[in-house]
């Protein structure tokens, strides 16, 4: 620490606590989408599980459009609570928001785990699951924003650790799925163990949060109430949500974006007719400066959420039934996406190309639209209209690698460029605007997934 009067982080406990809290906030979304085969099996009318579904070469029919609904009902709360952000933070105490959200998420995930042992008809099971998805993601949105409100009072190192934990959530969920499948236990026990895992993660997150007041360094920083804390929270939350997912970000790929508000290296050129004003920035003026970057962010997430996981989770291996076909989708869809997406996000820590003045950025973003037909023409057994032009597994793996890397890189790049296009006192508003457009892109992509699935 630069100042001697600032307490030390003994045994790095504060950093570890925020890392675990970051991991816990994105576990629900990732565990739901990774378990899509389990839910499809239950909705197909059988009390199936992850293991039995994985050995099914063609996969169960998604009669309830579970892939699409789970994505849409996960992203709509994000958009809603982005709009209600200011109201919630003024009316509900911080401790109530954080601890209450964690407890509700834990209870709802415990319900999801308990339903593994309950025989239910598909209709009620679908309704209960969708209600759980909606409320879990609503409280996750409140939780994430509240925690970033606290992180706004602390050094950026802890924001980076928090985001690193969130980045591992997707990889953690995919590995939990693979371990569940490879465990060799009976099908129900395998599924039960899979859903108990995030319950343990949320419980540990609760313990970490409750322990923060007993740590001297945490007490020192959390007692401070800087005037810009909420603005830092909004800008940093935008960094988080680009995971969707979150929207889902390893090591320190967000470090560059998190420190932009403190980086005077690049100042935007002032327009001759617009003198610099130190007062409250205009939302319209800020939007006019970043509209193209914001539109790129919307399009990136729209393309990603329109096919992932609604379409990509339906792709199966073209090889004969066996071990590879059993593990194909968990590895090549979810695990590969999260790893490559994290790699793409980390690249902005080393270079940022193209810059904010280049017209190549919109071109690169628009080119990602090609991934929609590419994935739709892969080996998806449940199709009635489009042909299969890319049946081999290598095609899907290649598409997924480029798709995930480009998603992570372009999302990170747009989030880094937006603050550089405005004046320093306008960056708070720019962060809030980018947060809104990020949530808008996620919701648009989730909505379009219904259309693309119907075209198969």
UniProtKB/TrEMBL annotation:
The chain crosses the membrane at residues 12-39, 69-89, 96-116, 128-149, 161-185, 191-212, 290-315, 327-348, 360-382, 394-417, 429-452. One of its GO terms (molecular function) is guanine transmembrane transporter activity. The keyword Transport applies. It comes from the Eukaryota. InterPro entries: ENT1/ENT2, Eqnu_transpt, MFS_trans_sf. It catalyses: cytidine(in) = cytidine(out); uridine(out) = uridine(in); adenine(out) = adenine(in); thymine(out) = thymine(in). Its main location: membrane. Keywords: Cell membrane, Glycoprotein, Membrane, Phosphoprotein, Transmembrane, Transmembrane helix, Transport. It is found in: Apical cell membrane; Basolateral cell membrane. PANTHER family: EQUILIBRATIVE NUCLEOSIDE TRANSPORTER, EQUILIBRATIVE NUCLEOSIDE TRANSPORTER 2. Belongs to the SLC29A/ENT transporter (TC 2.A.57) family. This is Equilibrative nucleoside transporter 2. It comes from Myotis lucifugus.
């Amino acid at each position: 620490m630069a100042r001697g009067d600032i307490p030390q982080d003994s045994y790095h406990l504060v950093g570890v606590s925020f890392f675990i809290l970051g991991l816990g906030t994105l576990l629900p979304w990732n565990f739901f989408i990774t378990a899509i085969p389990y839910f499809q099996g239950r909705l197909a009318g059988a009390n199936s599980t992850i293991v039995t579904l994985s050995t099914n070469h063609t996969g169960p029919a998604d009669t309830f459009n579970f892939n699409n609904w789970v994505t849409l009902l996960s992203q709509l709360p994000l958009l809603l609570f982005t709009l209600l952000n200011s109201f919630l933070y003024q009316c509900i105490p911080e401790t109530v928001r954080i601890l209450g959200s964690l407890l509700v998420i834990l209870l709802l995930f415990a319900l999801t785990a308990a339903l593994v042992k309950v025989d239910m008809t598909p209709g009620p099971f679908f309704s209960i699951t969708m209600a759980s998805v909606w409320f879990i993601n609503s409280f996750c949105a409140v939780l994430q924003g509240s925690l970033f409100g606290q992180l706004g009072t602390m050094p950026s190192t802890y924001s980076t650790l928090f985001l690193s934990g969130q980045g591992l959530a997707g990889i953690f969920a995919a590995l939990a799925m693979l371990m569940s499948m490879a465990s060799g236990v009976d099908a129900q026990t395998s599924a039960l163990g899979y859903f108990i895992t995030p319950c343990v993660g949320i419980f540990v997150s609760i313990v970490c949060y409750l322990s923060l007041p007993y740590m001297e360094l945490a007490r020192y920083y959390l007692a401070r109430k800087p005037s810009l804390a909420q603005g830092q929270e909004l800008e940093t939350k935008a960094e988080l949500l680009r995971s969707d997912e979150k929207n889902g970000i390893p090591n320190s790929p967000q470090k560059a974006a998190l420190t932009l508000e403190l980086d005077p290296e690049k100042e935007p050129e002032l327009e001759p007719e617009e003198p610099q004003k130190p007062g409250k920035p205009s939302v319209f003026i800020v939007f006019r400066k970043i509209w193209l970057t914001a539109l790129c962010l919307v399009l990136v997430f729209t393309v990603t959420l329109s096919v992932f996981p609604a379409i990509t989770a339906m792709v199966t291996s073209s090889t004969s039934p066996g071990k590879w076909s059993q593990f194909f989708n968990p590895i090549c869809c979810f695990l590969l996406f999260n790893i490559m997406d994290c790699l793409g996000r980390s690249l902005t820590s080393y270079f940022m190309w193209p810059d904010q003045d280049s017209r190549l950025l919109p071109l690169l973003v628009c080119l990602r639209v090609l991934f929609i037909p590419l994935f739709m023409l892969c080996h998806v057994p449940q199709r009635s209209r489009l042909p299969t032009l890319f049946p081999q597994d290598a095609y899907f793996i290649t598409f997924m690698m480029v798709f995930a890397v480009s998603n992570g890189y372009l999302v990170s790049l747009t989030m880094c460029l937006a603050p550089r296009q405005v004046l320093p006192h306008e960056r708070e508003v720019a962060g809030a605007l980018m947060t809104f457009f990020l949530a808008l892109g996620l919701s648009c992509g989730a909505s379009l997934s219904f259309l693309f699935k119907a075209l198969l």
